[in-house]
Specification:
The complex is a heterodimer of chains A (114) and B (111).
Chain A lengths: L2 E4 L4 E4 L4 E3 L1 E4 L5 E7 L5 E7 L5 E4 L2 E4 L9 E3 L8 E8 L8 E3 L3 E6 L1
Parallel strand pairs in A: 2-12
Antiparallel strand pairs in A: 1-4, 3-9, 5-6, 5-10, 7-8, 8-9, 10-11, 10-12
Chain B lengths: L4 E3 L2 E4 L5 E6 L6 E7 L5 E8 L2 E4 L8 E4 L6 E5 L8 E9 L2 E4 L3 E5 L1
Parallel strand pairs in B: 2-11
Antiparallel strand pairs in B: 1-3, 3-8, 4-5, 4-9, 5-6, 7-8, 9-10, 9-11
Classes of the chains: A mainly beta (114), B mainly beta (111).
Chain lengths: 114, 111
């Protein structure tokens, strides 16, 4: 079955530090890949996505590149801010799964300190 | 996200009671997904519904849980005879041309 593995948290960084959150996946079909962000007490918001190999998703300074050869979709940001503190989820939607539900990783909690 | 409305935001139930969670999808969306988030875990798929039809309930526990999406009104996730292990955040997402849009969730606490 499909699965998503992302680095365990929590991750604590100083403001303006470089961020990488690793994400790898297994899928039976040709998945689309997503990063979602969850702020405390809120639902999930789509951060960025990529639908095919070598696509780069980007938003709000965050980037992730769909690497089919390494089955990875690592999230990066060059300079984090305190407001980036949240839980980040990597997810996939597999074209081979008929109902198109999302499969999520366990989430990585990021805390950015001033 | 204001587009997908879930209520209540917080729900407290005693063991053995019933919990009813509601989800109104974005206007024009007729596909609804329910996910459960246990503490310190990612979201797990529960059920996928279209209007008046359950399309995929492979993630639903076999007992006590049911879902519906009637022709009129919100989608309902019902949990009968709740137990402490049902305490979690339950999220609804609707699917349309924009992709998935998640609601803010219902946080169920069973005491």
């Amino acid at each position: 079955g499909d699965s998503v593995t992302q680095m365990e948290g929590p991750v604590t960084l100083s403001e303006e530090a470089f961020l990488t959150i690793n994400c790898t996946y297994t899928a039976t079909g040709y998945p689309s890949l997503f990063w979602y962000v969850q702020y405390p007490g809120e639902g999930l918001q789509l951060l960025l996505k990529a639908t095919k190999a070598d696509d780069k998703g980007s938003n709000k300074g965050f980037e992730a590149t769909y690497r089919k050869e390494t089955t990875s979709f690592h999230l990066e940001k060059g300079s984090v801010q305190v407001s980036d503190s949240a839980v980040y989820f990597c997810a996939l939607r597999d074209s081979g799964a008929g109902s198109y539900q999302l499969t999520f990783g366990k989430g990585t909690k990021l805390s950015v300190i001033p | 996200n204001a587009g997908v409305m879930q209520n209540p935001r917080h729900l407290v139930r005693r063991r053995g009671q019933e919990a009813r969670l509601r989800c109104s999808p974005m206007k024009g969306h007729s596909h609804v997904y329910w996910y459960r988030q246990l503490p310190e875990e990612g979201l797990k798929f529960m059920v996928y519904l279209q209007k008046e039809n359950i399309i995929d309930e492979s993630g639903m526990p076999k007992e006590r849980f049911s879902a519906e999406f009637p022709k009129e009104g919100p989608s309902i996730l019902r949990i009968q005879q709740v137990v402490r292990g049902d305490s979690a955040a339950y999220f609804c997402a609707s699917w349309g041309s924009e992709g998935y849009t998640f609601g803010s969730g219902t946080r169920l606490t069973v005491v």
